[in-house]
Amino acid sequence: MKLNIYIISHPLIKILTTGIISYESNHSKITSRYKNHQYLGILLIYEILRKWIKISNIYIKKLDYIHEISIIDNDQKNYIITNIIDNYHTITEIEKLFPQTELKHININNLQSWEKINIQYINSKTNLIILENFLNNENILNLIHYINTIHKINHSCIKIACITCTNKILEKISTRYTDLNIYTTKIIND
What we know:
The protein is 37% helix and 29% strand. The protein is an alpha/beta fold. It has one domain (4-188): Rossmann fold. The strands form two sheets. It has a six-stranded parallel beta sheet. The chain has a two-stranded antiparallel sheet with strand order 2-3. The model has no long low-confidence stretch (mean pLDDT 82).
């Protein structure tokens, strides 16, 4: 396996992940579970984008001081492809917090929903993040192939973010796409 797998091990992320996994098993405290998903989604996207967002500083000379402004490269665009219905609580604040980021709805099990993805402004600074709460579906391989062939987005610009994933799906991804970056909080052996 030659994938670039990043297991995010920040203490807050570990606590939130444990809470989500335990809530999934006993279905209690629904409000806490949704908040945990929201915080975890923000932290996951932050970990992915912090290396990729390019900021430039502009200095404006005033009469008696210098004013500094930080701006994001206008050519950079981030797309997050996810099932908005299933992952709503994970992504509710992402568009507000991360500039130049756009959410796109997709059902990983429905090819017709893939055809409705409208991705514009593709350039070398475009980042595409596929976000799944629990990555265990082999359709992810077909989706990556579709994005690469139809939208002409290179594999190196595609990142996968998930709360948990299985080692079987990671092995299958590694056989076809060795240059992908996968960000997760936990790998489940199955």
